[in-house]
């Protein structure tokens, strides 16, 4: 459950350790703000990045928490507390999550065992021809044939209530 590296691309966070608990601050039980993420080792030819955060342990299906795309190759970090509106003004795009809102929706599992939250970064050789506000499936479909490298980190969260 640590960092997965593909073709030299690495993803990390100063907000939580891979394989460890995501602090309450980044969840629906806290401030529900996005954690800091950074990466390096993008392969030559990278034009943009896409990031998808989801919960594979959600009841019934994989639950999407965050969809970002067309992050310029010149960027190598997402600061803590990415705001959907401000982020879009910087030339990036955010999609809708399964909370039916644009931007980040933090971990919010039902009581019980901890859930895994995957932050999956893709290095792409293109800019995706998609408007803001599309679904994860639309982004995944548009990325087909354009993925140069991938990296993933996983954090855990269990509700105390």
Automatic annotation (TrEMBL):
What SUPFAM superfamilies does the database record attribute to this sequence?
PEBP-like (SSF49777)
Q: Which InterPro entries match?
A: PEBP, PEBP-like_sf, YbhB_YbcL/LppC-like
Question: Where does the source fall among the domains of life?
Answer: Archaea
- Please give the Pfam families that the UniProt record associates with this protein: PBP
Q: Tell me which CDD domains the record gives.
A: PEBP_bact_arch
The record's listing under NCBIfam families reads: YbhB/YbcL family Raf kinase inhibitor-like protein
Q: Which protein are we looking at?
A: Raf kinase inhibitor-like protein, YbhB/YbcL family
Organism in which the protein naturally occurs = Methanocella conradii (strain DSM 24694 / JCM 17849 / CGMCC 1.5162 / HZ254)
